Amino acid sequence: MKAFVFPGQGAQTVGMGKDLYETSDRARQMFERANEILGFRITDIMFSGTAEELRRTDVTQPAVFLHSVVLASVIDDEPEAVAGHSLGEFSALVACGALDFEDALRLVAARAAAMQRACEANKGTMAAVLGLNNQIIENVCNNTEGTVVAANYNCPGQTVISGSVEAVATASEALKAAGARRCLPLAVGGAFHSPLMESAKEDLALAIEQTHFKTPRCPIYQNVDAQSYTDPELIKQNLIAQLTSAVRWTQTVEHMVSDGVTQFTELGTGTVLQGLIRKIAPEVTVTSVSTI
Question: Which residues are catalytic?
Answer without folding.
Answer: 86, 193
